[in-house]
UniProtKB/TrEMBL annotation:
Primary gene name: Alg3
Pathway in which the depicted protein is active: Protein modification; protein glycosylation
InterPro entries assigned to the protein according to its UniProt record, in alphabetical order: Glycosyltransferase_ALG3 (IPR007873)
Membrane topology: Multi-pass membrane protein
GO function term, MF aspect, one: dol-P-Man:Man(5)GlcNAc(2)-PP-Dol alpha-1,3-mannosyltransferase activity
Keyword Oxidoreductase: no
Stated role: Dol-P-Man:Man(5)GlcNAc(2)-PP-Dol alpha-1,3-mannosyltransferase that operates in the biosynthetic pathway of dolichol-linked oligosaccharides, the glycan precursors employed in protein asparagine (N)-glycosylation. The assembly of dolichol-linked oligosaccharides begins on the cytosolic side of the endoplasmic reticulum membrane and finishes in its lumen. The sequential addition of sugars to dolichol pyrophosphate produces dolichol-linked oligosaccharides containing fourteen sugars, including two GlcNAcs, nine mannoses and three glucoses.
Region called Disordered, residue ranges: 437-456
GO terms for cellular component: endoplasmic reticulum membrane
Keyword set includes Ligase: no
The organism's place on the tree of life at top rank: Eukaryota
Protein name: Dol-P-Man:Man(5)GlcNAc(2)-PP-Dol alpha-1,3-mannosyltransferase
Transmembrane regions listed in the UniProt entry: 91-107, 119-136, 165-183, 189-216, 228-245, 281-299
Lineage: Eukaryota, Metazoa, Chordata, Craniata, Vertebrata
């Protein structure tokens, strides 16, 4: 009898341990506090995935050779930007790109050691992933199971990093480092890194409206001018060798906002006739839509104060009522929004939504542009309140977007589906962060207790 009792107790303890392990496994997948643990596991897995991709999937030449030809001209002493060219055409990126890829040019034997370049980009992929995970750990909004879709499941992102060697991942990795600095209250260093990212590729400017809003909120107009000067000064320093030789040529080539895109590469506008795609009126309409979207979000979603948005121009200490200082220790939007966001999450929301608005209104999205917003999608989808049943539609949106970007060449169906997914994300961002109506009904009065009556 005692033996049976002991065996029954042991079985009960074992069953309790299994139930506890199962509960912890569910928590590790659903609760954001487990993000560091899941991130560590996924980074280890990603190291193996990238090695497998490099060794087993054939490298495909697209722009790497042209990059090397462009920086080779600079290495040979050419400082006229209009003379720097490759097989795909003239150099159209700012000076930061030249210096970074010149380093890769020299390390890889004038660009000939493709395998070494792939390993370097695999390291960049892991660094980028660590920076992204650090942002998600600070915001504490996304359930960890979502990161499985952000990592191992995306063929296109692995291809952009280690099979195509584009400059877009370099710019985005520097940008994510800048955002980490913003979250650490190192605004000057963050602005320096932000400007460096812009000097690699101009798509980083899509984050600029959100960053300007944050700087005004944190420092006011006079206080943010030094930060903007840091951004501008770095651009001048990096471009100085080319500005001294041919300033007009450098500015028109590296910051060409009117450049035409080829219709055959577009991912998002395939359903339009090519004449409309190339039409300047269509481009102007997209620009107006972009500006309108930024204005609406700035006025009604980013600006949490009841005061006029122009009060952002004042010194924060002189605002009435005084604005809470924008630090990671402050809790913002708690009383006024559907989804309470801590300061880290609020900073990330503004930057990521600013970029997403630009992507939605882009004149054209090419396949390598997927990395512009891929790592921000989980946050954009899960920063708003999510019920148990609403997880599946959000995961489905991620899957459809991935499918659209993996459809080559793009089709009418894939490009339309991409716009529908973008529209749904915008709607949930708009309504999920809408201010909640303030109730003016006084709280019900409590009946006095016996003790309170005795006190009276």
């Amino acid at each position: 009898l005692r033996a049976e009792t002991r065996s029954g107790m042991a079985a009960g303890r074992g069953a309790a341990a299994l139930r506890r392990a199962w509960r912890e496994r569910r928590a590790a997948l659903l609760e954001p506090r487990y993000t560091p643990l899941v991130a560590a596991c996924l980074c280890l897995a990603e190291g193996g995935v990238n090695l497998w991709v490099i060794r087993r999937v054939p490298y495909t030449e697209i722009d790497w050779k042209a990059y090397m030809q462009e920086v080779e001209g600079f290495a040979n002493g050419t400082l006229d930007y209009t003379q720097l060219k490759g097989d795909t055409g003239p150099l159209v990126y700012p000076a930061g790109f030249v210096y970074i890829f010149l380093g890769l040019y020299r390390v890889t034997g004038r660009g000939s050691d493709i395998r070494l370049a792939q390993y370097l980009f695999a390291g960049l992929y892991l660094l980028n992933l660590l920076l992204v995970f650090r942002i998600y750990c600070r915001t504490n909004k996304v359930p960890p199971y979502v990161f499985f879709f952000m990592c191992c499941a995306s063929y296109r992102i692995h291809s952009i990093f280690v099979l195509r060697l584009f400059n877009d991942p370099v710019a985005m990795a520097i940008l994510f480092l800048a955002i980490n600095l913003f979250l650490e209250e190192r605004w000057s260093w963050g602005c320096l890194l932000f400007s460096l990212a812009v000097s690699v590729k101009m798509n980083i400017l899509l984050f600029a409206p959100g960053l300007l809003f944050l700087l005004l909120q944190r420092f006011g107009l006079l206080g943010c001018i030094p930060k903007l000067c840091i951004c501008a000064l770095l651009q001048v320093v990096l471009g100085l060798p080319f500005l001294l030789v041919n300033p007009v040529g450098y500015l028109t080539r590296s910051f060409d906002l009117g450049r035409q895109f080829q219709f055959k590469w577009t991912v998002n506008w395939r359903f339009l006739p090519e004449e409309i795609f190339q039409n300047r009126v269509f481009h102007a309409a997209l620009l107006l839509a972009h500006l309108a979207g930024l204005g609406l979000f700035a006025l009604h979603r980013w600006h949490s104060s009841k005061e006029n948005i122009l009060t952002l121009l004042k010194d924060p200490a002189k605002r009435k009522p005084a604005s809470p200082r924008l630090t990671v220790n402050n809790i913002l939007w708690q009383a006024s929004c559907v989804c309470p966001l801590n300061a880290s999450a609020w900073i990330v929301f503004i930057l990521f939504s600013s970029n997403f608005l630009g992507v939605c209104c882009s004149r054209s999205l090419h396949y390598q542009f997927y990395v512009w917003y891929f790592h921000t999608l989980p946050y954009l989808l899960w920063c708003t309140p999510t019920t148990k049943l609403a997880h599946m539609p959000k995961v489905l949106l991620l899957g459809v977007i991935e499918l659209c970007w993996n459809t080559y060449p793009s089709t009418v169906c894939s490009s339309l589906s991409l716009h529908i997914c973008h529209g749904l994300i915008l709607l949930q961002l708009w309504y999920g962060t809408a201010p909640t109506p303030v109730s003016h009904t006084p709280p019900p009065s409590k009946k006095p207790t016996a003790m309170s009556k005795k006190t009276q």
